[in-house]
Amino acid sequence: MDDRHATDEFDVGIKQTAGGGESTLTVLIALGANVLVAIAKSVAAVITASASLVAEAAHSWADAGNEVFLFIADKRSRRPPDKAHPLGYGRAAYVWSLFAALGLFVAGAAVSIWHGIQELIHPEPASDFLIGYIVLAISFVLEGISFLQSVRQARAEASAYDRELLEHVLATSDPTLRAVFAEDAAALTGLVIAGGALGLHQLTGSSTPDSIGSILVGLVLGVVAVILIQRNVGFLVGEQVSPQVRAAALRALQSEPDVASVSYLRLEYVGPRQVYLVADVDLTGDHAEHEVAAELERLERRITASRGVAGAILSLSAPDQQPLVD
Which helix or strand (DSSP H or E) is residue 323 part of? Predict the structure, then answer.
């Protein structure tokens, strides 16, 4: 097997997808949509004095700020390895995405819930409901465009992994895709809640439904933020790849002509679509000690030639180690 074929095998093994540039596009579309929506909601909130629209405006401004964090996350994580960071800067994506999730929790969820509670205590009537409905409808269209882009990217990647869409969004090592998908889904849900709350306010003449709508929007954002925080923390502290990806990588390693068997294999994500591989192998033939070291080093170079393998360490299997079965 030549080096190019070996690289192809490991690219298939960890399911490389065209996600880097696609993630950037997804973030930029979301940023543009959120800025436009945030401005429109803020104007409508001032005109109508609707608590739900205030919550939605805070939500969109939080999302817009978060997209900046996600853009930084995407760019920083793709910096090439250097002497100080031999495995690259992939985990920087989870740090900046964690900041975005915390921002969503504080600037989105907490503000919306606090404002809703204040409106319950000190109710204010709303006016100019038509303006509110128009802004919510336009916002739904813009948020929907952003959401469809994240769905398109997620669906393509989920198909490559043989996963359901939501399963892949939760499992993916790309935090920017997960964040944009989750935030846009929460935004669309929040718009529906805000529209219903505004309608009930108009029908009943009471601001209570509007205030409750603001609190509900905050709760939705809080749930989404907690999920995103947990997933980013999981990848930061070290998360192994899924069983499907591990099995594919094991098959790729076993397909090497110089590898008789594999007795240990660990694959850990060190960034979006980047793994670190540690394995114990039994080589074919009977080599002298210096030849074994050279062969292992050569295999490591071939494995790390894959776009998705940031580093690899191979050791010889102990005599009592049993081969892994695919």
Answer: none
| Distances from the Cα of 261 to the Cα of 119, 180, 243, 256, 296, angstroms | 67, 42, 19, 9, 13
pLDDT band at 13 (very low <50, low <70, confident <90, very high): very low
**23 versus 71: which is more confidently predicted?**
71
Residues 246 and 266: their CA atoms lie apart, in Å, by 8
- For 192, residues 6+ apart whose C-beta sits below 8 A from its C-beta are none
What's the length of the chain?
A: 326
* Strand-pair category, 259-271 with 309-316: unpaired
Our CA dihedral for 199, 46, 145, 107, rounded to 10 degrees, sits at -100
What is the distance between the alpha carbons of residues 60 and 51, in angstroms, rounded to a whole number? 14
Burial of 73-93, coded b for 16+ CB within 10 Å and e otherwise, reads bbebbbeeeeeeeeebbbbbb
| Among 77, 65, 108, CA closest to 235 | 77
Q: Which one, of 229, 241, 218, lies nearest residue 69 by Cα?
A: 229
